[in-house]
Design brief:
With 71 residues, the protein is mainly α. The chain is built from one helix and no strands.
Amino acid sequence: MLVVAAAEVVAAAVVVVVSMVVEVVVVVVVVAVVVMVVVVVVVVEVVVVMLVEAAAVAVPFAMVVVIFALI
């Protein structure tokens, strides 16, 4: 009788520990995914800003080159 009760207590403890470990793993994975998404968004935003700035510099320069070429 005591052995069965002890086995039930151990099984319950194992279930609690495993559920806590699974919860921690899920939280870590969710945080990692959120961080990766934020990093990707920031990198894309920086690249887009760089491309827009490069276009803003290149277009007037190209217009000047075309104007001088036409003269």
